[in-house]
C-alpha cells in the first residue's frame, strides 16, 4: 500500500447534547460504556475499582456537559450515534 494509511489518525468528532465527543475524558467514556451495558452504579464502581461517589461525580459531569436530564437520554444518544456499541 506504499505506506499509506486508510484509517483516520483521530476518531471523528460526534456531537452529544451540548458537547463534542472530544470533550469527554477516558474515564467518562468508561462510565458511559458501563451505563450502556445496563450496569448499576454499584456495579460500575466495582468494575472500574472506584467508589460509588466517584461514579456519581463522573455522571454528574457528563450530564452537565451534555445538558441531558438523566442517563437514559445520554445512553440513547450515544448508542443511536454509534459512539458506544452495547454488548447484548
TrEMBL record:
Pfam families: GerE. Residues 17-82 form the HTH luxR-type domain. InterPro entries: Sig_transdc_resp-reg_C-effctor, Tscrpt_reg_LuxR_C, WH-like_DNA-bd_sf. This is Helix-turn-helix transcriptional regulator. The keyword DNA-binding applies. The lineage of its organism: Bacteria, Bacillati, Bacillota, Clostridia, Lachnospirales. Signal peptide: none annotated. It comes from the Bacteria. The keyword Transcription applies. Keywords: DNA-binding, Transcription, Transcription regulation.
Amino acid at each position: 500500500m506504499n505506506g499509506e494509511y486508510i484509517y483516520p489518525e483521530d476518531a471523528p468528532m460526534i456531537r452529544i447534547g451540548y458537547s463534542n465527543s472530544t470533550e469527554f475524558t477516558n474515564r467518562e467514556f468508561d462510565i458511559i460504556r458501563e451505563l450502556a451495558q445496563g450496569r448499576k452504579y454499584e456495579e460500575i464502581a466495582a468494575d472500574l475499582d472506584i467508589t460509588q461517589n466517584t461514579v456519581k461525580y463522573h455522571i454528574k459531569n457528563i450530564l452537565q456537559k451534555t445538558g441531558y436530564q438523566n442517563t437514559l437520554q445520554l445512553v440513547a444518544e450515544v448508542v443511536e450515534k454509534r459512539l458506544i456499541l452495547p454488548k447484548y
